[in-house]
C-alpha cells in the first residue's frame, strides 16, 4: 500500500539565508502514529507547515494521498487536520460557532451531530455557548483540537498539543487519539514530552538542525540503540574488581554492595550468561538481580548530541 504522505528531498531556506530543512525524505504509512522529536528550532514545525500547505517549500515535493500539496492545495488541505502550537481563535465567537465554521471552511456540509460528538469527547459540551475569551488556556487548547477534527480529516497533525496544559486535557486528548487511530486516522505528533511518544507512537523520527536523523519503529529503535543495565546486589561488598573484568562495562556502586553491568540489548543472553559464569568463577556471589533499559529519552539525547 502506498504511503499516505510522501516527502522527497524537501528543503526550506528563508530570505535571510537560514536553511530550516535540508533534504528531508520521509514516508508516513496510512493509519500509523508517528512521533517527531527534536529540540527547539530543529525544523519540526516548518516540516508540518509545508505538508499542511501553510508554508511553501524551497525545493523537493510533498504528496498527500496522491495529491501534490502545492499543485492541489484544496484537496490536500481537506484531508488534513492541524492542531497548531499557537492559540489562534476569534476571542468573541462561541465555541460552537468556531468549530462549526471551521468545518465549513473545508467544504464540508453542516453536521451538528459530529460537532456535538467532538465537543463531548473533549469535555467542551458545557462550554459550547461560551465565547473563546471566557475560556481558560487549557479550554482554548481543547477548542483548537475540536476545530482540527471538525471536518473529519483522515490525517491529523498535533504540533506540541499538550505543551503547558493540564493533566486532564492530556488524558482526554490521548483518549481521542486512540479512538482516531482505531478508526484509521493517520496521526503525526510533535512533542517535548518524550514519554508520550514512547507510550503511543508506532514509529519515531528524530529531527535536528533541519535534518531527519532517523525514522524507526519504536521498539526496533530501542532494541537497536538502547542500552541495558544488569544490577547485581552482592552478598559481600567488593573494594575493587578483579583485573579480568577491566574494561567490559562492569562497575561497582553503593559502597561496593552493587555491581552494574551495561551491555548491548541485542546480545543480551550471551553477554549476561557469560558475565554470571565469570562472576561465579571468581567467587563473587549476588543475592538479587534486576535489569533497566534505556528510555526513548536517553536515545533521543544521545542522537541529538552526536549530531552536533
Automatic annotation (TrEMBL):
Signal peptide: none annotated. The keyword Nucleotide-binding applies. InterPro entries: AAA+_ATPase, ABC_transporter-like_ATP-bd, ABC_transporter-like_CS, ABC_transporter_ATP-binding, P-loop_NTPase. Gene3D superfamilies: P-loop containing nucleotide triphosphate hydrolases. Keywords: ATP-binding, Hydrolase, Nucleotide-binding, Transport. Belongs to the ABC transporter superfamily. This is ABC transporter ATP-binding protein.
Amino acid at each position: 500500500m502506498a504511503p499516505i504522505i510522501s516527502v522527497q528531498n524537501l528543503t526550506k531556506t528563508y530570505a535571510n539565508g537560514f536553511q530550516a530543512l535540508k533534504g528531508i525524505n520521509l514516508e508516513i504509512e496510512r493509519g500509523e502514529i508517528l512521533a517527531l522529536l527534536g529540540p527547539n528550532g530543529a525544523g519540526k514545525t516548518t516540516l508540518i507547515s509545508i505538508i499542511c500547505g501553510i508554508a511553501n517549500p524551497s525545493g523537493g515535493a510533498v504528496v498527500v494521498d496522491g495529491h501534490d500539496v502545492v499543485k492541489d492545495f484544496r484537496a490536500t488541505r481537506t484531508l488534513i487536520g492541524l492542531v497548531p502550537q499557537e492559540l489562534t481563535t476569534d476571542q468573541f465567537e462561541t465555541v460552537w460557532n468556531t468549530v462549526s465554521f471551521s468545518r465549513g471552511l473545508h467544504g464540508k456540509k453542516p453536521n451538528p451531530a459530529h460537532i456535538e460528538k467532538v465537543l463531548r469527547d473533549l469535555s467542551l459540551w458545557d462550554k459550547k455557548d461560551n465565547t473563546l475569551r471566557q475560556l481558560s488556556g487549557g479550554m482554548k487548547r481543547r477548542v483548537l483540537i475540536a476545530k482540527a477534527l471538525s471536518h473529519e480529516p483522515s490525517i491529523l497533525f498535533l504540533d506540541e498539543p499538550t505543551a503547558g496544559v493540564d493533566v486532564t486535557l492530556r488524558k482526554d486528548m490521548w483518549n481521542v487519539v486512540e479512538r482516531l487511530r482505531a478508526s484509521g486516522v493517520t496521526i503525526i505528533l510533535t512533542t517535548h514530552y518524550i514519554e508520550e511518544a514512547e507510550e503511543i507512537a508506532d514509529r519515531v523520527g528524530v529531527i535536528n538542525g533541519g535534518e531527519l536523523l532517523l525514522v524507526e519503529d519504536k521498539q526496533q529503535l530501542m532494541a537497536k540503540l538502547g542500552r541495558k543495565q544488569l544490577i547485581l546486589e552482592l552478598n559481600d561488598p567488593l573494594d575493587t574488581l578483579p583485573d579480568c573484568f577491566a574494561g567490559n562495562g562492569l562497575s561497582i556502586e553503593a559502597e561496593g554492595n552493587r555491581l552494574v553491568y551495561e551491555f548491548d540489548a541485542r546480545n543480551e543472553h550471551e553477554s549476561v550468561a557469560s558475565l554470571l559464569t565469570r562472576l561465579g568463577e571468581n567467587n563473587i556471589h549476588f543475592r538479587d538481580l534486576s535489569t533497566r533499559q534505556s528510555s526513548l529519552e536517553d536515545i533521543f539525547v544521545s542522537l541529538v548530541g552526536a549530531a552536533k
